[in-house]
Amino acid sequence: MAIQIGLVGTGTVGGGCIEIIKQHKESFLRHFGIDIELKWVCSLNPDEAKAHGVSDLFTQDYHDIINDPAVDIVIELIGGVSIARNIVVEALQAGKNVVTANKALMATYGKEVMELADSMKKELFFEASVGGGIPIISPLKHSLIANEISTVMGIVNGTTNYMLTRMSEDGLDYDTALREAQDKGFAEANPTADVDGLDAAAKIAILASIAFNSRVTIDDVHAEGIRNITPLDLEAARDMGYCVKLLALAHRREDGVDVRVHPTMLPLAHPLASVNGVFNAIYVVGDAVGETMFFGEGAGSGPAASAVMGDVLECARHLQAGIAPLVGCTCTDEVPFVPMEKLDTKYYIRFAVSDRAGVLASMANVFAKYDVSVHSVVQRGRQGDGSKVDLVYVTHTAREASVRAVLEDIVKLEDTVLAEPSLIRVED
Ligand code: HSE
Q1: How confident is the model at residue 1 (pLDDT cuts 50, 70, 90)?
Q2: What is the pLDDT of residues 384-421, one digit of tens each?
Q3: Which helix (H) or strand (E) holds 39?
Q4: SS3 state of residue 159
Q5: Burial of 30 (0-12, 13-18, 19+ CB in 10 A)
Q6: Ligand 1, residues 12, 159, 196, 218: which to mutate, most atoms within 8 A of Cβ?
Q7: 194 C-beta closer than 6 A to ligand 1
Q8: With DSSP H G I counted as helix, E B as strand and the rest as coil, what are the percentages for the chain, rounded to 5?
């Protein structure tokens, strides 16, 4: 008897799933013995179902799927946390297994839905919620569980990686890079979720929860985006042997876990430094395995549908073998979060300053006052009439709170700082 599937959402990812099922259904059976049947397709848009040739399976009411006792797996692909949350919750309550691509749902209500799945003895899969087609949830939940994971660090937003690549390689400014990303369909008309780091924050919350066996929600993640990055900073970084990436970082430290998203200077030799354009990559360090990196396309119909259908087939395999559920919620530990002000890292700071005697000396006093040790300082080119220069500092490892205090005092120095300083954290 085939495993019956109900699909909710016929947009880019849902359409990709329908096409994969149409093309490979026979192969799933022949090669893996997995027999699946698409029973329902639910969407608000009948034309989308028609375009994929599945009008005969179409409904506009997801309750038709939830209430059908024959349905084994519900695929939720509408996104968001309102109706999607109802669909996932109601499906689990009705005894269905669920596959979702919904990062916002998992990063916000992950605990609720995972616990519900566990209590119903059903499975909840969400590989496509992070990194599109890149397998990362499953490796963290299966292949790497023999490790204590110390770091998960990734480029998990293709839009901003595309923009930073264009800004760095071709000297585009932020606005031009954004317009180009929008023209190419990578960035939304309202780009906030991508450029302000919120999309990446949801994704690292999900990864950190699994890697550290501790619930991390999007609200626990400090997120800064790329709006303030200038070609000047990218050029200065390159001259020092670094690139700038919007990184989502999760580190296990002695005093807790530190989870954040912000532009980061990375040495050009780092494996993540060569990940350009819309590609994503996630770098994971475990105590036994050492360094690993997962690379691929982080968005788009094919990659996301590949991840969703991988989950569906895994779930179907378990159901056929009578062994589901296999892996439920693994967030068993209460681990404290390290607040941003207690972060210890290196900093790149660029000040646009008046080019006159005594400026360096007065700034040096402020660094000394807060015990922030300077690794290097470089004065870069005169601009305009020559009265303004950029001073680029790189610090040794310092406390975030101390660096913030340095910035606050320096911008108050009389007739010194001419524009908002740029600050980029450095990851070695
Ligand atoms: N907007 C995301 C990105 C893809 O640019 O990578 C969906 O998570």
Answers
A1: confident
A2: 666 899 999 999 999 999 999 999 999 999 999 999 99
A3: strand 36-42
A4: helix
A5: exposed
A6: 159
A7: yes
A8: 40, 25, 35
